[in-house]
Structure formats: structure tokens, C-alpha cells
TrEMBL record:
MF GO annotations: 4 iron, 4 sulfur cluster binding; glutamate synthase (NADPH) activity; metal ion binding; oxidoreductase activity, acting on the CH-NH2 group of donors, NAD or NADP as acceptor
Top-rank lineage group of the source organism: Bacteria
Cofactor(s) in the UniProt record: [4Fe-4S] cluster
Domain Dihydroprymidine dehydrogenase: residue ranges: 39-131
Keyword RNA-binding: no
Protein name according to UniProt: Glutamate synthase [NADPH] small chain
Length: 486
């Protein structure tokens, strides 16, 4: 155990953020560099090393949280990094991007603020990179087997790294011009600077993983031909079919899906563009959708110089305390103020968009909405509450409905889909096509980064057993596992 009295004597402290007026003028990460180091050992010491660490269950990766908290408290950063990487290929991603269901399941969180698990995690891995403790781990021998991984998001990268280290020759196919999937073009720079992604990709290259960018399986390469070229295939293409809003005026200029808007800002940061073709500069911006993607749109609009930013959510405003019907250790729905919300804008709950209004040039100018409420478990509109708000740029951030079926990948492989548009797989992550496996959102549906990495690791075991008859790779989650929830 780290500090036997730590949870009694030390209060919770989290990473310090830079002043709002400073950070909205750049795209750097919002946290003050190095702000965690002075406090993180005491924060790690708050871990109780409880008899049943429910944080393990809250995290699908099964992270050994009490163990690396103990090492961090004692200042043994190399040992902490080893324990952290034993279950997680990319803790610098999860430490920055995951909403930390482990903290919701922390035993200390029953009646006190939970341990800052996420902050300890990111400190451990950042110090490991600085100390040179993270190095390539190429296999000792090659198996002679080849694997194609379709998609380079967290699930695809995790599966590829596991299989490469197991001795297989792995090629990752990505339809974008750079590796990373949503990590590259969905996550804004202020949430995770892409240097963290770049050095992991370079580590994987040094281990032997091959990367093929600007190749879309189903369009550029026939999926059936790809299957014949490789001994096995892993589909980790994500759930990229965005939920639309079929209301009058949807066709107006200036109404875009979030994933049409966000990648352009990242391309500016990469140096590909001098200015984003879709920009919030000087405009009244409305973001429809109250989740993390919506918050990313809010933060991006602030940095582009929006005149105003309004975020709409159809559901009621959550409470700030854990509700009784979502008890510990489940992941509760709480009112969350992200760094983007700290930077300004208005959040409006319990409203539904009825239609958009444009000008003579076909550009959106107004969004019409109406208040809604739950009546007998159903959302109903409240008469007399209609109004309109200025909207010169609208981003739709309402989630995703399944994997892409328009590029031909699903049809060419002959894959079976479930009722939600996800690719069906068995307990080993194998699909209905021989030798074809699926990991991440393409099989699970829209989910968290920790689930994607966990599924990538688990699917790698299924592929390894398929190729060799046995496997010692980890199997952290089953395809049927779900988050702790009521």
C-alpha cells in the first residue's frame, strides 16, 4: 500500500489548466506543462489498495491501478511504467482522452472524491518517455504469417502492435493521409497534441509494423482480394456513419457533420492548409449534441474566433451529484464542464431543432428550436416554446450509427451485421468470414477509447490463435462485455 493514511490526509488535486484567455489563442494542450509533478506522488498515495479494487472493473483494460499508484508514490517511475504498459498499449492516449470510468468505480469514491487515476496514469507514461524507458519491442522471431489491419484508430493500432510483437508481419491500412484515425483527425490538438501519437507510430514502425495510408479497403482495394493476400484480416474501421438531422433546411450551406468540421482544423495544425475551409471565424456557431464530440466543436470554434457558441442538447441537464439510480461503482451521468466549456459559450438543455432558416444565397442564418420534456417516458414538445437563435455555422455532433457500408468493405467481405449496423463477431472476435476479425467500434458500436484498445488487444489473441493454434496474448474483454451501468 502506498500511504496508509493518504486518503484521509490528502485532498484531491487535478491537473492545472492554463488561463482561458491564453489557451484560446493557441492550439496547445490546455494543461500547464509540468503542473502535475509537484502533487502527483501524494495523489497516488490516496489509493487505498482496497481488498477488491473496483477500478479494475470500471476499466475494460483491467489496468493494475493500485500497483502503479504504489510505484508512483514511491517514485519508482520505471516500475510504474512497466505495470501500466502491462495492460495498456497507449496510456498517454487514455490518460488524456478517456472520461475515466475507473475513477467512477474507485472505492474511495463511495464517500470521498475519487483518486486522480487518470492524472497519475498520464504522469507515469510522460515520465517514461522522458526517461527513455519506452523503447521498441520487436519480436525475437517471425511466424511467417501475415495480417492486414483495416483502420489505424486506437483499436487498430493496439491489435497491430500486439500481433507484431507476437511475431506476425502486420500491415495497417488507413484511408486518410496520416495514421491515427479519430486520434489524428477527430481529437483536437488542445486535447492531445499529435506528437504523442507520432512517437507511438514511430515505435511501432521500429518494431516492424507497416503502414499504408490513403488506401481505402472496399474502394481502392477489393476486400476479397485483400483477404487472399493475407493470412488474416482485422477490421478496426470504427463506427463512422454519423447520425443525421433530417429537418427542413438541412441542405443549407453551413450545416455540417462534426467530422466534416473537426478534421479540417487538425489539417491546419498539420500544415496542410493555411485556413480551414469550414471555419467559425466571426460566426454565430451552434453545436447540436452535448457529448464529447460536441465539446470538441465548442473548443475548436472558440479558437477560430467565433462570434458566439451555443451547444444544444435534447436531454435534460444532468445533476452535479451522483443520482441514486446510478449508484457506485457505475459510470454516472453528471453535468460535466470540460475545458472547452470553461472557455465560454452557452449550453441549452431539453430542446429540439425543428428547422433551419437561410438567406437568399442558401446560407444558414437561423436555427429554430422548441423545448421538450419527458411525459410518461417519452419526449414531447412543449407548446408555445418555439424560438430561433442565430446560426451561421451548425455542427451535428449527435453520435454515430454504425460502421461505413458505402465503401463496399462489408459487402465484399460478405459480413453479417446486427440490428444496429455493427459487424457481428463471436467470442474470439471472428466475423462470419473465415479469417476476418473485427475490433473496436466497428463491432461494438460507438464507445470509449479504453474499450477500443481493450478490444484491439483481445482481438489480437483471437487472430494469434487462428494463425498458430494457441496464444499467450491477453484477452481483457469479451465482445459481449459492457460498461458497469444500471
Amino acid at each position: 500500500m502506498a500511504d496508509p493514511k493518504g486518503f484521509l490526509t490528502t485532498g484531491r488535486e487535478v491537473a492545472e489548466t492554463r488561463p482561458v484567455d491564453e489557451r484560446v489563442r493557441d492550439w496547445n494542450e490546455v494543461y500547464v506543462p509540468g503542473s502535475l509533478l509537484p502533487v502527483i506522488t501524494k495523489q497516488a498515495g490516496r489509493c487505498m489498495d482496497c481488498g477488491v479494487p473496483f477500478c479494475h472493473s470500471g476499466c475494460p483494460l483491467g489496468n493494475l491501478i493500485p500497483e502503479w499508484n504504489d510505484y508512483a508514490y514511491r517514485g519508482d517511475w520505471a516500475a510504474a511504467s512497466e505495470r501500466l504498459h502491462a495492460t495498456n498499449n497507449f496510456p498517454e492516449f487514455t490518460g488524456r482522452l478517456c472520461p475515466a470510468p475507473c475513477e467512477s468505480a474507485c472505492v474511495l469514491g463511495i464517500n470521498r472524491p475519487a483518486v486522480t487515476i487518470k492524472n497519475v496514469e498520464v504522469t507515469i507514461v510522460d515520465k517514461a518517455w522522458e526517461a527513455g524507458d519506452i523503447t521498441p519491442q520487436p519480436p525475437e522471431r517471425l511466424s511467417g504469417k501475415t495480417v492486414a489491419v483495416i483502420g489505424s484508430g486506437p483499436a487498430g493500432l493496439a491489435a497491430a502492435q500486439q500481433l507484431t510483437r507476437a511475431g506476425h508481419t502486420v500491415a495497417v491500412y488507413e484511408r486518410a493521409d496520416r495514421i491515427g484515425g479519430l486520434l489524428r483527425y477527430g481529437i483536437p490538438e488542445f486535447k492531445m497534441e499529435k506528437r504523442h501519437l507520432n512517437r507511438r507510430v514511430e515505435q511501432m514502425r521500429a518494431e516492424g509494423t507497416k503502414f499504408r495510408t490513403e488506401v481505402e479497403i472496399g474502394r481502392d482495394v477489393d476486400a476479397a482480394k485483400l483477404r487472399r493476400r493475407y493470412d488474416a484480416v482485422v477490421i478496426a474501421a470504427g463506427a463512422t456513419a454519423a447520425r443525421d438531422l433530417p429537418v427542413p433546411g438541412r441542405e443549407l450551406n453551413g450545416v455540417h457533420q462534426a467530422m466534416e468540421y473537426l478534421p479540417l482544423a487538425n489539417k491546419v495544425r498539420e500544415g496542410d492548409l493555411t485556413r480551414a475551409p469550414i471555419s467559425a471565424e466571426g460566426k454565430h456557431v451552434v453545436v447540436i449534441g452535448g457529448g464529447d464530440t460536441g465539446a470538441d466543436c465548442v473548443g475548436t470554434a472558440h479558437r477560430q474566433g467565433a462570434a458566439s457558441v451555443t451547444q444544444l442538447e435534447i436531454m435534460p441537464r444532468p445533476g452535479e451529484e451522483r443520482p441514486s439510480h446510478q449508484p457506485w461503482p457505475t459510470f454516472p451521468m453528471l453535468y460535466k464542464v470540460t475545458s472547452a466549456h470553461e472557455e465560454g459559450g452557452e449550453r441549452v438543455y431539453s430542446v429540439s431543432t425543428t428547422h433551419f432558416e437561410g438567406d437568399e444565397e442558401g446560407d444558414v442564418q437561423w436555427l429554430h428550436l422548441i423545448e421538450v420534456e419527458f411525459v410518461d417516458g417519452k419526449l414531447e414538445q412543449k407548446a408555445g416554446t418555439e424560438r430561433r437563435i442565430p446560426a451561421q455555422l451548425v455542427t451535428l455532433a449527435m453520435g454515430f450509427t454504425g460502421t461505413d457500408q458505402e465503401n463496399g468493405l462489408v459487402r465484399q467481405f460478405g459480413l453479417e451485421l446486427d440490428g444496429r449496423g455493427n459487424i457481428v463477431r463471436d467470442a474470439s472476435y471472428a466475423t462470419s468470414a473465415d479469417g476476418v476479425f473485427v475490433a473496436g467500434d466497428a463491432g461494438r458500436g460507438q464507445s470509449l477509447i479504453v474499450w477500443a484498445i481493450a478490444e484491439g488487444r483481445a482481438a489480437a489473441r483471437g487472430v494469434d490463435r487462428y494463425l498458430t493454434g494457441q496464444s499467450t496474448l491477453p484477452y481483457p474483454v469479451r465482445p459481449t462485455d459492457r460498461a458497469l451501468a444500471v
